Amino acid sequence: SDNQLGDEAGKALADALKTNKKLDTLHLNRNKLGEEGGKALAEALKTNETLKELILNLNPLGDEAGKALAEALKCSKTMRQLWLSSSQLGDEAGKALADAVTTSKTLKKLSVCDNQFGDETGRALAEALKTNTTLQDLLLNDNQLGEEGCKALADALKTNTTLDALLLDKNNLGDEAGRALAEALQINKTLRTLLLKDNQLGDNAGAVLADALKINTTLEQLHLNGNQLGEKAGKAIAKALRTNKKLSSL
Predict the structure, then answer these.
(1) Terminus-to-terminus CA distance in the chain, angstroms?
(2) Going by C-beta distance under 8 Å and a sequence separation of 6 or more, which residues neighbour residue 170?
(3) Pairing with 154, which of 92, 123, 131, 183 sits 20 to 30 Å away (CA)?
(4) Longest dimension (CA), the chain
(5) 139: closest CA among 175, 174, 87?
């Protein structure tokens, strides 16, 4: 990580991955890997049989490389963690990754924070979560999923039974989306971490979150900093915490 490898080095590493039988983790954060380097690595992943964790944060990959990596994920029988935060990915890559999540039988963590995902990606990932049975951590901070994308994810949480952590800080969700997530928490039995900082959540969302905390017995971390919950919501949540025995971080 933190070198200046560039696309040519990325291609060389990709060639090595095609024959390497030992490497299980590859850290390539902040290495100026662009579209060509990303696509070369993706091609190598289609045949590599050992890599379990690929970390490509802070590289200017772009949508085409993102889509190529998504296709590779469909082929991989070993990949458990894929990190693509701050990779200049848009909805085309987001939808492709969601499609890969739908069929993946190995992926446990997908980190795609600080990209340009909108509600299209949110809806696509929601559909994936309805059928995926392996993904445990979905990191989506600093995107633009918005109300519709978040409502779709909330609906998926009502039936998903494997997701452990959902990170949605700074996604311009709004009060209605917050309300939808709170309603999902009244049903969901597996989510332990939900991050909702800086999302314009108001008193309505806060009231339903308080109701959810009275019922939910699995959530351990709920982060609500930087919202507009107000005194009414604060009192309702405080009251809920008197009976909630599981939440340890708020």
Answers:
(1) 33
(2) 141, 142, 143, 197, 198, 199
(3) 92
(4) 61
(5) 87
CA dihedral in degrees (193, 196, 202, 207; nearest 10)?
Answer: 0
Q: How many CA atoms lie within 13 A of 142 on its CB side?
A: 11
For the record, the structure tokens of 87 come out as 């990779």
Beta-bridged to residue 138, according to DSSP, are 110, 166
Would you state the structure tokens that stand for residue 140, as one six-digit string?
């989506």
User: What angle is formed at CA 20 by the lines to CA 75 and CA 56, rounded to 5 degrees?
Assistant: 60
Q: What is the model's pTM? A: 0.96
For the stretch 169-220, pLDDT in tens is 999 999 999 999 999 999 999 999 999 999 999 999 999 999 999 999 999 9
Identify the band that residue 106 occupies on the pLDDT scale cut at 50, 70 and 90.
Answer: very high
| Tokens encoding 20 | 């390497």
